[in-house]
């Protein structure tokens, strides 16, 4: 019987399972469940276009935590019914969760979690949604798109002495989307919720907590970096950052710290799978569960070099260097966030919130459906790079920081599918590359690219020209596959003879041909009066107008 590592990615739009043979590295099963189209996941109140529950105030971005429970049940049900992988062959489960997303558990939640470990309860006790219906002190899970926390993020930054001290401690300049700022906002806006909350878990820890039946599983230091509460160099909660985040809150820093679980490595083993999953879906009682991490850390597992992920948001990730005294490099300019991947390796990344969903909206603006890509993608190869400019960020942005640009900004061209689609692609890529220069490096090494838009030839050639380096597309399984690979690392702590991570990624990750930058395209972008200069000048002017 094969030894299987199962990666589970709980993302903004879906829950995906990717199973790999831990010995051969082959992908043996994959399944993605859409929150919109899977009938089992309806009824949770998500808006069709945003994947959020309707916000009560501008900038609020929540999803219902019960949705994640329903999706987890549905995923294991499909694995059992598909019959491609025997559930009892799964030796390890590892999780990826959308970064910064988190849930609030009330006092006594552990009692409900622990019932998942009790044997012989049977299906009559109900599914996860019913078994854990009453564990939440806050009925929403704030996710990474939250943007109404500028005041709270500034309070944390100011509380530790300003930008440079904030970066020195946390590796980031207190982004407003990071979990610590959101926790402070929830505590200020809903003090009764804060008082009732016993535990706050990142989504990447919440799923393992359910899998093992323990509401106090550890928080991994990779995703913990996305909270503004973790000491980046020490890989532990920072009393100084927690003091700043908890200032004037009920219970102060002591109550705040008590709601956080202990820090562990991303590939640490946090327990064996609970009896609920053994009896309901046929998993082995010996199946172990890893601590898990965020979607960006788990995606970065797959590439040791630089990676551009074109997902819901666009993320540029660069491997970080370590000095002789063991300190890890950070971006003192504050554009990048310092983090660790699902194996504990340091990297720097810039995350542009306005990513693929904005490209979707541009196509939809011209009459195409959200998933109707070909009519627009087929136009790209014939459109000169840098011919059109289109600046649009419907949501407030963190890379670089700036308010929402509600209406598309063009550069004199008439609105059309051709002009707007090429314009939003060229402009977005240019902005990402320009503001990543403070933490990236000049190199001829390939830039790896993943995500749905990477499947379009016209997009890949543009990336090569914007970065002026070779580009290689990799498979689109992303964070779920990274979690599965890192799961083998967790399993290796208990079993000998398993392949290395490098061997696994070479086996499981399909790579496209190398696409090299075309000199003429590079000149049109980076010349003295080229597109880059025009875009950045116009973009910064628009941002200044927003803040005036």
Compact summary:
The chain has 21 helices and 25 strands.
Written description of the protein model:
- By secondary structure, the chain is of the alpha/beta class.
- It is 36% helix and 19% strand.
- Helix 4 (150-159) crosses helix 6, helix 10 (239-246) crosses helix 11 (252-258) and helix 14 runs antiparallel to helix 16.
- It is globular.
Number of strands: 25
Number of helices: 21
Instruction: Please summarize the sheet with the most strands.
Output: 7 strands, mixed
Oligomer: single chain
Strand content: 15-25%
Overall geometric form: globular
**Arithmetic mean of pLDDT:** 93
Amount of helix: 25-40%
Structural class: alpha/beta
Cα Rg: 23 Å
Our measurement of the CA-to-CA distance between the termini, rounded to an integer number of angstroms, reads 65 Å
Q: Give unreliable regions as ranges.
A: none
Summary keywords:
548 residues, alpha/beta, seven-stranded mixed β-sheet, 36% helix
Topology of helices and strands:
Elements: E1 4-10, E2 14-21, E3 27-34, E4 62-63, H1 65-82, E5 90-97, E6 102-106, H2 109-115, H3 128-131, E7 141-142, H4 150-159, H5 163-170, H6 179-189, H7 191-196, E8 197-202, H8 203-212, E9 219-220, H9 221-224, E10 230-231, E11 236-237, H10 239-246, H11 252-258, E12 263-264, E13 269-272, H12 275-281, E14 288-290, E15 293-294, H13 295-300, E16 306-310, E17 314-319, E18 337-340, E19 346-352, H14 356-365, H15 374-377, E20 390-393, E21 397-398, E22 401-402, E23 405-410, H16 417-435, E24 447-450, H17 457-467, E25 471-473, H18 478-492, H19 501-508, H20 519-526, H21 531-547
Parallel strand pairs: 1-5, 5-14, 5-15, 9-12, 16-24, 24-25
Antiparallel strand pairs: 1-2, 2-3, 4-7, 6-8, 10-11, 13-14, 16-17, 17-19, 18-19, 20-23, 21-22
